[in-house]
Amino acid sequence: MTNFDVHAIRQDFPILSREVRGKPLVYLDNGSSAQKPQVVIDAVTKAYSEEYANVHRGLHFLSNLATDNYEGVRGKIARFLGAKDENEIIYSTGSTFGLNMVASSWLAPRIEAGDEIILTVMEHHANIVPWHFLRERQGAVLKWIDIEPDGSLDPQKVIDAIGPKTKMIAVSHMSNVTGAIVDIKTIATAAREKGVAVCVDGSQSAVHMPVDVVDLGVEFFAITGHKLYGPSGCGATYIKKERLAEMRPFMGGGDMIRDVGKDVITYNDPPHLLEAGTPNIVQMIGLGAAIDYMEGIGWDAITAHEADLTAYAGERLRGANWLNLYGEAPGKGAIYSFTMNGSAHPHDISTIIDQRGVAVRAGHHCAQPLMEHFGVSATCRASFGLYNTREEVDVLMDALELCHELMG
Ligand SMILES: Cc1ncc(COP(=O)(O)O)c(C=O)c1O
Q1: Where are the domains of the chain?
Q2: Which of 199, 234, 366, 403 is catalytic?
Q3: Residue 19 C-alpha from the chain's centroid
Q4: Ligand 1 within 6 A of 283 CB?
Q5: Using CA atoms, how far apart are residues 233 and 91, in angstroms rounded to an integer?
Q6: Beta strand 23-24 with 19-20: parallel, antiparallel or unpaired?
């Protein structure tokens, strides 16, 4: 972990020095949304206060400048995800948008009643509901793959489920509930041999590990900017060139057309074909700054720091025999879900530890099939980012002990 000083990193995030309820903020809700470094806040401020105009529209100075700044992020995202061509990056408002776009623009026109979509029980609703639409509207069959007792996903079970009617495998790269990481490459290699497309929800993984979409061999990979230390309302979807050529337009409006007549329209080429209307100009510029920030720290430092946090948090949480942990997959990322023995509901736990300044998420985490698998309606989730510390894990544990004393 050379050159990584977490206390210096924390200085980059203004919100981390604030207090909550008279206590230093311990922000462990990163799986939901991450805090923003000053460079991202500055990039957004500068874009609005000095360099703002609509993009792709004008011939004036500011419009050209805003267009350059906005379009310049496409190449950064392509490099960040290992895509070879920046035109394979479609801007979005987040993973929810990206996954819905894949379902609606690519799969909907080519799915027939009885065709199958393979899903896993650990998907976020954003990677479930768009496929349910195709079940409801077009008679697609959803085939669900269960997870192993330790919370991992056996890639062979996904591969074995592929049949002659399988059209798509929709799978998360990293669970937002358990932190389990999925062996996408093995799944995608087998899927490719059978002519089945793989759509990956990379909302969590892209924050915690380097991603290379070409090496993974997937057709679609969605990310969301606000978890990546960027602004809310931005994200991107990698779409492999061959699939991009097959995409039906998602939304109609400005930018995605070439000519509009009374009886005929001609369309723009991708990526603009799939980016109708005035986009999230400033948010995307902020995402570019966030990617620069993460790359400036470097994956070696980020992954080493987070591996240490994951190990330490796991050790502390497992040490409390009144907690039940959900998902202990080997190599998992920095996310822990748990419940407490006794009468404390996850919502109570979250409310009580909030009094100590500790922010965690409680609920079903938009992953109800996974809650059903675990036989619970909700859990508490502590999810870590690159700025969290071992000391914060200790504050979390002290707050949980207090909660256990009160409600256990
Ligand atoms: C695994 C996963 N997928 C998808 C999403 C949806 O992301 P967004 O709401 O930013 O579109 C989330 C966000 O919680 C997530 O954790």
Answers
A1: 6-30+299-407, 41-295
A2: 366
A3: 28
A4: no
A5: 11
A6: antiparallel
Query: CA 336 to CA 328: how far, in whole Å?
Result: 9
Contact 204, 333 (CB under 8 A): yes
Answer yes or no: are the C-beta atoms of 356 and 399 closer than 8 Å: yes
Probe residue for ligand 1, chosen from 177, 224, 284 as the CB with the greatest number of ligand atoms within 8 Å? 224
Which architecture characterizes domain 6-30+299-407 according to CATH?
Alpha-Beta Complex (3.90)
Measured between alpha carbons, how far is 191 from 141 in angstroms, rounded to an integer?
Answer: 18
CA distance 368 to 151: 15
Which sign does the torsion angle of CA 208, 232, 313, 177 carry? negative
């470097």: which residue's tokens?
Answer: 298
pTM value? 0.97
CATH topology for the 41-295 domain:
Aspartate Aminotransferase; domain 2 (3.40.640)
How many C-beta atoms lie closer than 10 Å to residue 268's C-beta? 18
- Cα 120 to middle of ligand 1, angstroms: 15
Q: What is the pLDDT of residues 170-204, one digit of tens each?
A: 999 999 999 999 999 999 999 999 999 999 999 99
Query: How far is the C-alpha of 323 from the C-alpha of 337, rounded, in Å?
Result: 10
Q: Which long-range contacts (CB under 8 A, 24 or more apart) does 185-190 make?
A: 185/215, 185/216, 185/217, 186/155, 186/156, 186/159, 187/155, 187/158, 187/159, 188/216, 188/217, 188/218, 189/217, 190/155, 190/159, 190/162
Encode pLDDT of 129-167 as tens digits: 999 999 999 999 999 999 999 999 999 999 999 999 999
Amino acid in position 27: Y
CB count in 10 Å sphere of residue 134: 21
From the alpha carbon of 366, which atom of ligand 1 is closest? Answer: 14
209 burial (CB, 10 Å; 0-12 / 13-18 / 19+) is middle
Whether the CB of 172 sits within 6 Å of ligand 1 = yes
Q: Is 94 in the pocket of ligand 1 (CB under 6 A)?
A: yes
Cα 86 from Cα 79, distance rounded (Å): 8
